Amino acid sequence: MWKETRDREFGNLRPNSFVNRIATARISSIQLSNYKEIVSSHRGSVDSLQVDLTEGRYLLAGAADATVAVYDVQRATNYEGGGLIAKHKSVFVINKQHENGHKYAVSSAIWYPIDTGLFVTGSYDHHVNVWDTNTTQVVQNFKMPGKVYKIAMSPQARSHMLIATGTEDVQVRLCDIASGAFAHTLSGHRDGVMSLEWSTSSEWVLVTGGCDGAIRFWDIRRAGCFCILDQSHSQLGRRPPLLSRMTTNKKSSLAGQSSNEKVRAPQRKVPNGNALKLYSTGRVSSHVKTSKQRLHPGMLSSHDRATGHYGVVTGIKGTNDGMYLLTAGSDSRLKLWDIESGCNTLVNFETKRLQSTKAIQMAVSHDSALAFIPCMTTVKVFDMWSGQTKGTFRGHYENVNCCWYNAQDHELYTGGNDRQILVWSPSKIISDEMDEWRKGQQTADAVDRDNWSD
Amino acid sequence: MSVWNYVVTAHKPTNVTHSCVGNFTAPHELNLIVAKCSRIEIHLLTPQGLQPMLDVPIYGRIATLELFRPHGETQDLLFIATERYKFCVLQWESEAAEVITRAMGDVSDRIGRPTDNGQIGVIDPDCRLIGLHLYDGLFKVIPFDNKGQLKEAFNIRLEELQVLDIKFLYGCAKPTIVVLYQDNKDARHVKTYEVTLKDKDFVEGPWSQNNLDNGADLLIPVPPPLCGVLIIGEETIVYCSASAFKAVPITPSITRSYGRVDTDGSRYLLGDHNGLLHLLVITHEKEKVTGLKIELLGETSVASSISYLDNAVVFVGSSYGDSQLIKLNLHPDAKGSYVEVLERYVNLGPIVDFCVVDLEGQGQGQVVTCSGAYKDGSLRIVRNGIGINEQASVELQGIKGMWSLRSATDDPFDTFLVVSFISETRILAMNIEDELEETEIEGFYSNTQTLFCHDAIYDQIVQATSISVRLVSSTSRELRHEWFAPAGHSINVATANTTQVLLALGGGHLIYLEIGDGVLTEVKHTQLEYDISCLDINPIGDNPNYSHLAVVGMWTDISVRIFSLPDMNLVTKEPLGGEIIPRSVLLCTFEGMSYLLCALGDGHLLNFVLNTSTGELMDRKKVSLGTQPITLRTFSSKNATHVFAASDRPTVIYSSNKKLLYSNVNLKEVSLMCPFNSAAFADSLAIAKEGELTIGTIDDIQKLHIRSIPLREHARRICHQEQTRTFAICSLKHNQSSAEDFEIHFIRLLDDQTFDFISTYQLDQFECGCSILSCSFSDDSNVYYCIGTAYVMPEENEPSKGRILVFAVEDGKLQLIAEKETKGAVYSLNAFNGKLLAAINQKIQLYKWMLRDDGSRELQSECGHHGHILALYVQTRGDFIVVGDLMKSISLLIYKHEEGAIEERARDYNANWMSAVEILDDEIYLGAENNFNLFTVRKNSEGATDEERGRLEVVGEYHLGEFVNRFRHGSLVMRLPDSDIGQIPTVIFGSVNGVIGVIASLPHDQFVFLEKLQTQLRKVIKGVGGLSHEQWRSFYNEKKTVDSKNFLDGDLIESFLDLGRNRMEEISKAMSIPVEELMKRVEELTRLH
User: Fold this and answer.
1) Is residue B139 within 8 angstroms of chain A, CB to CB?
2) Cα A163–A166–A170 angle (5° rounding)?
3) Which residues have a Cβ under 8 Å from the Cβ of B316 and sit 6 or more positions away?
4) How far apart are CA B81 and CA B86, in angstroms?
5) Between these two residues, B824 and A446, which has the higher pLDDT value?
6) Which of A5, A10, A247 should be substituted to probe chain B, the one whose Cβ sees the most B Cβ atoms within 10 Å?
7) Average pLDDT of each block of 10 consecutive residues along chain B (1089 residues)?
8) Which helix (H) or strand (E) holds B1081?
9) Which are the contacts of A268, defined by CB distance < 8 A and separation ≥ 6?
10) Which one of A17, A55, A256 has the shortest CB-CB distance to B909?
């Protein structure tokens, strides 16, 4: 950082490169934090973690004991270890005793993307609750047909306030906070929906992963899903193969044109289509599209049966640049998809086993270069483009369910069945006090030290 | 200071980021277009040199500047893309002499990640499309239709992630790009792609080349007939095309810029990071490339852009030093250099640090900057006002008047300098040795005070004394005629031009004489009701020898009157109001406008626009120039007329855009001035001050005066110590002589007058100076320089060791008094409660200054505070400490005396990556961050909850568009106690692009008024290229874009004064405030900088 700071001050290093370089260096040094701890208030497995998107300050956690808690990750509640270890206790906890509390496990808890005044929880008790953060009261309640696995709101949304909800039921429901009613349902999956996420590039596009192994793209303004990812459709690398010089001249008039026309056609019909850059909406896959346009909305053919994973799609995470999608399945595989072409990029992630019975919450670093994946009791860090393991975080005693990457502090928070929330942070340049304190601790506590620590 | 801030540029950006050459203003005219971050300048190439045609602000930071010519056009169009993803195409409109917007648009995308290596914009040489690389993995194409209009843009996916350069190839049937990229194993390759507009996709290109030089960073496309591309590496240069591959080794260097010499693309100029200029020649037989040759031409500033103009004249734009206009000679000079510098263009950038000092003790701040980098490092002394370069001076007490005279009417130079004292008149003249010696003019009365003298027609001179007016031949120096004042009257005031004399006698008598050949004729005699205090008949009409108007300043009724000549009829009478009499009046013409200037005895100046035919006075304005009586005199410099107002704060009055401007002269009290244009001292001024007569030349008439002190090394930190009259700097020198490139760091002591190095302390190997401070400690009366350092070990990512060195200046030498080792880099040092506060990596540490038993001193750590990522920037006020963190915005700490501890009080929870902080007042803190924004936060000590009190509330946000390295309290202008402006607190900032700016905290009502004016101006002044001012100034980072608040753009507001009258009236109507009132209020603001 010293050299970067110096190079930046005389214009030798562009400010955005400066940020990226330092961030990259910091991520590469992430380890179990020796100066920051979250004191978990949960007595069941932690299944959902999210830091608010406005300030990057409040961590919302949902757990299997039906508790929801908020932790301030910026401001410690107290310090230990000679003032060097910051303890973050929960700001508040909502549990079963709360008058509106959930009865069963909270599977998903998310912030309202615009501010921290509201948050939303989904539970196995078939309810989605919208909470006022300041009063910790439920302001809206949606009754679902089955256990709620996953809820999501679009951080891009400027014109809607919809909570997409994946449940045991085959239909994905959109709960509208503005009206307090279901906006509509998305039908297509043949089994429950364990994972879903809004597009990072368009506020209208939703991606869902079902227990049927299908990954579906929906434009919520239109009926039916407009794309299903097919694991047998693949490309090697970041983009579909180039047209070779020889064939293009002949081919271009056929394939090229048809795909273009088709691509553009639906866009024009969209009101304010020009204002909103519906890049990924309209232009998904020239290959898929040619057939898709005909099939839609029913998608009766074999294509409708295409699967992204063998088994359940347990996790979905889009990259921050909006160009790729990372999915996890109960087949213990991770797949990286090119959203535009709809192709599987064939990156081979070196996973051994993934949890298969539960949805997992994955995270991607700010520059989309690294993926943080809960792999049983560890969290693995994969290089997004080589699939190589860059690191394995061991700290949880039981399976890890969820992780959240805090891009502001370059920290990773993970929650597991061991009821803990662990903080993984860039190593601090250890100062003299820390060393001295450690030494003191070692001699003093040598007797009652256990062998369990990291 | 306050929340309501006004941001204005005192010194515009000077860092040349781009330049290009083409026929922009007319098909046959060659133009140089220079981009300086957020401004573009258009120059015309003339046989006399570069002639500026236009200098306009762009509402954006320029990322791409390219000239291109669509089919069917006879002259070039200018394509500009900004870093915030706007683009525009500009065309020259010759009638109005301005640029008009042909096309504009937004090329931002929701998807993709902004590129790390900078945005790339390229235009197909056959004008089929514009290509942009803005996001990793995407190549954006804006196609042209066959009429040269731009069509809808689309993206093509790019396999390569780390793109270093993209260029279009010449001579390809389909538009073809060549991409230089780095793979994930850090190897570099080039690839070509054809763009098919029909498919909106790439097709495999004609060739590719793998495993190039590891430092390959730049592509140069070669035009027909050769075609292909040059790949510039650090150790080799390669020519590559489908059919040929030629390489040439070079001495290791990083090429930063290139310029094409010939249109056939066989010769190129390459500028490297050491400022060496090379010529690269592609040798070829017809269209077949046979090899490459490279030759060293010489040294220039470190070039960021090179534009070959014509006839071996080259513009070298620089980011790290002054930009230059150079000529490449056919034969080398004595040092073997082919480079001859024709002209230098000052560049202050990058301003890494600066300090505000008042070296002359005049109450006017000046800024001393650490400017430039590498070998072009320098100190720059920037001050408001005009400098006088002394050439000669003599001690002379009691000068009462001074005039220069010629030896013949048609002599271009002045020969005599008449100096008048209370009871004698002495005449100085240039002798053959070009020395000033005393002489005599026989026809002059020399044992009395001269009231006035002037050259007259027919090789004559007039001298007015209290009793008579004498007409003397300037050749024979003999008296030709004498006119005596009527008995009982003495002449009090006299003035003359070459044909006329006007005299004021006691009792209000006014006598008008005309000069003939050897005769003075009394033409008119009138008596006014009061005594006359001052007179002027400076000819401002068509006839340079004869004035139709006479101006008279009066005692008693405090008025100025204008009389017509020769009949002496009263034309205008203007009461001045107040009780201060006029002491000097002057008629003058600036830029074709006639003015009457009237200086009062208390240092105020009134100016009027004068209608020469009717004698009517309009647009009365009053400004305060000083506190003593002012004497006005015209002089000319560089063919323009200016007025010198001699007083305790001498000022030059000049005109720009038909607007009178006032510039301080960097002299203390001046009693008199007269132009003295002798053969030896051309265009000089004779200045009488404090018992001294000085002859000197005047600098260019401009607002800021910049003096350069080249260091030939890179200064990073500076601080001034008033007590020892020294500056100390931290600097470094790159050692290039040996094979290994290493740096040597110094602490240098400079004299604050001569700027000579008077002492140097060399730091250890790997040790770098990071911070510097002049301070004193409690219980010790001495002042010290404290220097914070870091040991940057090659094997360490972060410095884990540093030092704090405490020096005293003894006999002009740096004496090390104490040193303290630290556990990291000392990024900042502050004097704090008689102690020393250091920011060391992530920690804030307070040190006490302790006296040891043996009488020596040491720094002893008292307490500290953790909790930062890197505490880079620290400011203190009382017990409060404001920290700007590397990436966690601003936090406020407090020192608790009782506990002897530092605690966090509040924090801004936004994720701002800081570049500078400053404390505006107890409550408001100012920050500059990585995305070129400014913001202010407020301490919320009245908050109801801990949570509220612990939060610094963001109260102001603004996009400055400049990377700020340092804020300092202070001002560049003289603060006059009697003006409103004098009460406004200001902070100065310095940026990477060489901008010096002022942030002024305004009272709320003034802010509201100016905000309204700014809103109106946004409607009237349209941004170049259709870019929106509102968007440009909106706070912008990766996370959010919000409208600017509680900051005003002073540059926009002050551009009100440059508007035409009808547009001013439009605004005045919308604001329902008279134009004059608006002008007055805006003009006042311009005096802030």
Assistant:
1) no
2) 130
3) B271, B277, B300, B301, B303, B305, B306, B323, B324, B325, B326
4) 6
5) B824
6) A10
7) 92 96 95 96 92 93 95 93 96 91 93 91 95 96 90 94 95 95 93 94 93 94 94 95 93 94 94 94 92 95 95 95 96 94 94 91 84 94 85 86 88 88 89 81 89 91 92 89 90 93 91 92 91 92 88 91 90 88 92 90 89 86 84 85 90 82 83 88 86 85 85 95 95 74 91 93 94 94 96 88 96 94 95 95 94 92 91 96 96 94 93 96 95 96 88 96 96 69 88 96 94 95 94 93 96 91 92 90 86
8) helix B1075-1086
9) none
10) A55
Q: How far is A37 from chain B (nearest CA, A)?
A: 14
Task: Determine the residue type at A3.
Answer: K
Residues in B closer than 8 angstroms to A431, CB to CB, are 823-824, 841-843, 866
Cβ B317 vs Cβ B34: under 8 Å: yes
- Count other Cβ atoms within 10 Å, centred on residue B119: 19
> What pLDDT, on a 0 to 100 scale, did the predictor assign at position B710?
95
Any CB–CB contact under 8 A between B868 and chain A? no
| Residue for token pair 């889009």 | A318
Q: What DSSP character marks residue A299? A: -
Name the minimum distance, in Å, from the CA of B263 to any CA of chain A.
31
Give every strand in the sheet of B826-832, ordered side by side: B826-832, B835-840, B843-851, B857-865
Residue B468, number of CB atoms within 10 A of its CB = 17
**Which of B 22-41 lie inside 8 A of A, CB atoms?**
none
Neighbours of B396 (CB within 10 A): 16
> Which among B116, B159, B932 has CB closest to A237?
B159
Size of interface A-B (CB pairs under 8 A): 169
pLDDT digits (tens, 9 = 90+) for A260-297: 433 333 333 334 333 333 343 334 444 444 444 444 54
Write down the ipTM of this complex: 0.86
Q: How far apart are CA A119 and CA A111, in angstroms?
A: 4
* DSSP secondary structure string for all residues of B464-493: E-SSEEEEEETTT--EEEEEEPPTT--EEE
Q: To the nearest whole angstrom, how far is the Cα of A425 from the nearest Cα of chain B? A: 12
Residue A378 structure tokens: 């560890």
Question: Using one digit for the tens of pLDDT, what is the confidence trace for A80-109?
Answer: 877 788 999 999 999 999 998 999 999 999
Interacting residues of B1005 by C-beta distance below 8 A, sequence separation 6+: none
CA distance A179 to chain B (A): 28
Map residue B1046 onto helix, strand or coil: coil
Contacts of B162 (CB under 8 A, 6+ apart): B116, B117, B181, B182, B183
Instruction: Give me the residue from A57, A322, A428 closest to B111, CB to CB.
Output: A322
Q: Which residues of B636-662 are buried (b: 16+ CB within 10 A; e: fewer)?
A: ebeeebbbbbbbbbbbbbbbeeeebbb
Alpha-carbon span B754 to B16, nearest angstrom: 30
Q: Do B792 and A3 touch (CB under 8 A)?
A: yes
Token pair belonging to A190 = 């043949």
CA–CA dist B869, A26 (Å, integer) = 11
Q: How many CB atoms lie within 10 A of CB B1041?
A: 12
Give the model's pLDDT for residue A263.
38
Categorize the per-residue pLDDT at A247 as very low, low, confident or very high, splitting at 50, 70 and 90.
low
Cβ partners under 8 Å of residue B120, min gap 6 = B64, B131, B132, B133, B163, B165, B166
| Residue B206 to residue A245, Cβ atoms within 8 A | yes
Whether residues A248 and B199 touch (CB distance < 8 A) is answered with yes
Residue A105 CA to residue A64 CA, distance in Å, equals 4
Residues of B in contact with A10 (CB under 8 A): 320, 350, 352, 373, 714, 992
pLDDT value of residue A244: 79
